[in-house]
Amino acid sequence: MLNFNQRIIAPSLLAADWSKLADECEHAIDSGADWLHLDVMDGHFVNNISFGPNFVKHVHQIVPNAFLDTHLMIERPDKYIHQFIKSGSSNITIHVEPDYEIEETISEIKKSGITAGIAVNPETSIESVRPYLDYVDILLIMTVTPGFGGQKFMIDETMPKVKEAKEIREQNNLSFHIQVDGGICSRTAKISASYGANIMVAGTGTFRAPNMKSAIDEIRNA
Ligand code: DX5
Ligand code: ZN
Fold this sequence. Notes:
By secondary structure, the protein is of the alpha/beta class.
């Protein structure tokens, strides 16, 4: 994985125009996206349904060299990770909130040779993921309640958690990157980076921006 200061920008395809998915994926890469963020939602863990492994497979066929950052907002990721691995995910992030074998699922993801992330919702404590921080490559701190794009960045509930996670990483010499997701634009990216995040997911802030390349540049340089 890259160093903690290297900013990684991951536009979320949830905000893309799926009627021209190939153009949108290629446009994001041409506009400087480092990763593509794929928001998988099952209608149980979150109150929305988005897409499944076949969508990820299709994106992988369109942009085979792109890093696909698959964010599983689903109740039972343990049942589906092999399908998302086979579909071409480069990273798979699972949530700590649902009830399944988390440690076992993280190790299954890593055994397949891709990276693994663990995600916390705004109301979930860093303490609840502490046992997994020794193993994961990414800690995803949700800066909105998951389920939809275009929501307001939740600064008070989440920035102290970014700071706490960074302190845990430094005190224990751990190697996970801190990713933020939800309401990210140049202003909120700057705030998030100041607390310790270096991987920025942005849906509305990139795919809905008048100029995607300048939006990505502004988030990168914020
Ligand atoms: C929300 C998703 C986010 C969302 C980001 O459940 O995990 O990735 O798509 O969208 P914006 O950047 O518009 O908040
Ligand atoms: Zn996401």
